[in-house]
Amino acid sequence: MMARIDLRNLAHSYQQQPKDEADYALCKMNHVWEDGKAYALLGPSGCGKTTLLNIISGLLQPYQGQVLFDGADVTALPPQGRNIAQVFQFPVIYDTMSVYDNLAFPLRNRKLAEEDIRKRVEEVAEMLDLQDVLGKRAANLSADAKQKISLGRGLVRSDVAAILFDEPLTVIDPHLKLLLRRKLKQIHARFNLTMVYVTHDQLEALTFADQVVVMNEGRVLQIGTPQDLFENPQHTFVGYFIGSPGMNFMPCRLDSGSLSVGDLRVEVAAGDEKLQGSLQLGIRPEFLQLHNEMTRGTHQVAVSAVEDLGNCMIVTVRFAGHPLKVKIPEGQAPPTEVGYLGFPPEWLRVYADGKLIETRLQAQVGEEALR
Amino acid sequence: MNKWEDNKAWFMVIPVFLVVAVSAILPLMTVVNYSLQDIFGPGQRVFVGTDWYRDVLTDQRLHDALNRQLLFSSLVLLIEIPLGILIALMMPKRGWGASLSLVLVALPLLIPWNVIGTIWIIFTRPDIGLFGAAINNLGIAFDHTAAPLDAWITVMLMEVWHWTPLVVLLAYAGLQAIPEAYFQAARIDGASTWATFRYIQLPKMRGVLTIAILLRFMDSFLIYAEPFVLTGGGPGNSTTFLSIYLVKLAVGQFDLGPAAAFSIIYFLIVLLFCWLFYQVLLKVGTGDKS
Question: A92, B181: Cβ pair inside 8 Å?
């Protein structure tokens, strides 16, 4: 069973007659999600990720565009006609049924022989560690067990090729989240199912997924591996949303092939035609270098706050009027009032109107920097 | 910490106790008083012990009224609960249609009870009533003032028309409270409409249906105004329910002692049935077999 998911010209609006882009919950998108991979849809509340998930599962008909499973157009098919299962934010279980009957429910609805049902249910129960509670009533179990039952109702169906998760760990106790997440990864590895996982928790997304789809305001801003998202955010929102704390951004000026903020100047390889609109320089707090003594290529900054997180420290400094966060390792003593900040050019990124400009940057160490 | 002494919540509860004491317990004690005495006039009373109770419990007319009452309440529950659920399921879930249907459904509940009786008297009159005349013109003789069966049908129709809306409103509220994810999950699980009703909607309505059944049982078991206005208990005694008989006894014949004893027994019967219903409804569908 395969499921490559193609989204073609897909867009959705909850209004009857959307006029401009603001009326769209999902802006037009074209994506191909490969078979057997784990995708996380990551974004703040209201960014359209659940809308997208419900369109894929068929609970929602898109306003325009198509959804294809392995090249076959399923846009018009109802959820039960698609080979998908979905796990919801709050565990959905059938209260009056036993765990066994809950797991058997999708198969009974599809009129399978009771003998086959028993085999499937037992197999799935074993995988999810539910064998011991099969005879119990589902209503009396804990939230994590209920969520496993929800998942199990998807897994029992042999036709299921993709499982969609809508923030499935929201109501699970923190110490059980880890176990359940590990279980999901095991199941993913064992069945080679395509998994789409909606969350607003970046840690969940980054640990679960092969590919993270970052969304904001109805748009997919970047699809990439966790490393991609960290090192090369395609959009300032991705830089800001991924990472803790998020990426630092500073508006900068362009003149004769170099970008400058305060006394920081970097040479930029890209031509002026690319560098249109409002320009920003961005750098991750992890890549900034904060020294107590002035060294070559560093810039004087005022230290305004120090937060000790136990395993590292977050130092807030002001550089040319912009607050910047710097992450320094635990052993290093942070400067008290004045520090000297280094901007490694290989980690500086240029954004024009919020979008990453692919270019090479080189530090320009002028007289003023050595002052 | 001593919860009894320190819990300030008692100050919130005590006023309720006082109100209930004055409005319910004191009158009830008066009735208990009456049921144990024979009263001839002010200051003239004789303690008679359990005599009135013995009289009342062996009264054949009361047995008949009790049987009639049980039949009536059973029919009310059997018709109104399923019908109420059915109507609630058919009502639109949102939009202007939802508001409109709610208002329409609630209309019978807004009419004073004795007016309801009057409406149905006119409605079912064989000569000028819309319903009565229509039925009679179809060649079916229908007159609730003459035929006991017709009287029963009329009272049942009136009761169902009047009180099914309450069940509808409760069931509708219960249905509205079910999170959308349940229906979405059911669609993905391939559940039929019946399976969705049987395994999601019905279990989720348990709480409101428990209330609906208790309320409809109590109200129908205590029904007075509507049949009193409509049939006055007749023809014969065919629609003389317990409360109508009780009022005949107390007001019509001024037998205060037996009427008081009867009231106490009536009260205990209602209490017993409500307790039984509650116990059963608490356990049904939860797998608790005890």
Answer: yes
Phi, psi of B170 (to 5 degrees): -65, -45
Domain A5-238 is found in CATH 3.40.50.300: yes
Looking at the 3D structure of chain B, how many domains does it have?
1
Of the partner residues B185, B200, B287, the one whose CB lies closest to the CB of residue A88: B185
Residue B33 within a domain: no
Beta-carbon separation of A79 and B191 below 8 A: no
Q: Where are the domains of chain A?
A: 5-238, 250-370
Q: Is the peptide bond before A233 cis (omega within 30 degrees of 0)?
A: no
Domain assignment of residue B93, given as a range: 58-283
Tens of each residue's pLDDT in chain A, 371 residues: 567 888 888 888 888 887 777 788 888 888 888 888 899 999 888 888 888 989 998 888 888 888 888 888 888 888 888 888 889 888 899 988 889 999 999 999 988 889 989 998 998 888 888 888 888 888 888 888 898 899 889 888 888 888 899 888 888 888 888 888 888 888 888 888 889 989 888 888 888 888 999 998 888 899 999 999 999 999 999 999 988 889 999 998 888 788 888 888 888 887 777 788 888 999 999 999 998 888 888 888 999 889 888 888 899 999 888 999 999 888 888 888 888 999 988 899 999 888 898 888 887 655 444 44
Among B179, B190, B285, the residue with its CB nearest the CB of A110 is: B190
Pairwise CB contact (< 8 Å): A94 & B286: no
Instruction: Verify whether the Cβ–Cβ distance B203 to A110 is below 8 Å.
Output: no
CATH node for A250-370: 2.40.50.140
Is residue A356 within 8 Å of A232, Cβ to Cβ? yes
Which of the residues A50, A51, A94 would you substitute to probe the B interface, choosing the one with the greatest number of B C-beta atoms within 10 Å? A94
Handedness of CA B47, B50, B52, B55 (dihedral sign): negative
Q: Do A84 and B189 touch (CB under 8 A)?
A: no
Give the CATH number of the domain where residue B69 resides.
1.10.3720.10
Report chain A residues whose CB lies below 8 A from the CB of B94: none
Spell out which residues of chain B touch residue A90, defining contact as CB-CB under 8 Å.
179, 181
> Rounded to a whole number, what is the distance in Å from the CA of A318 to chain B's nearest CA?
48
Phi-psi region of A85 (alpha: psi -120 to 50; beta: other; left: phi over 0): beta
Query: Residue A50's closest chain B neighbor by CA?
Result: B181
Q: Is residue B13 part of a domain?
A: no
Do A88 and B189 lie within an 8 Å CB cutoff?
Answer: no
Report yes or no: A3 and A194 within 8 Å, Cβ to Cβ.
yes
ipTM of the complex: 0.78
Please choose, from the candidates B109, B86, B234, the residue with its C-alpha nearest in 3D space to the C-alpha of residue B159: B109
Query: Residues 81 to 140 of A: which have CB under 8 A from any B CB?
Result: 84-86, 88-90, 92, 94-98, 105-106, 109-110, 137, 139
Q: Are A169 and A118 in contact (CB under 8 A)?
A: no
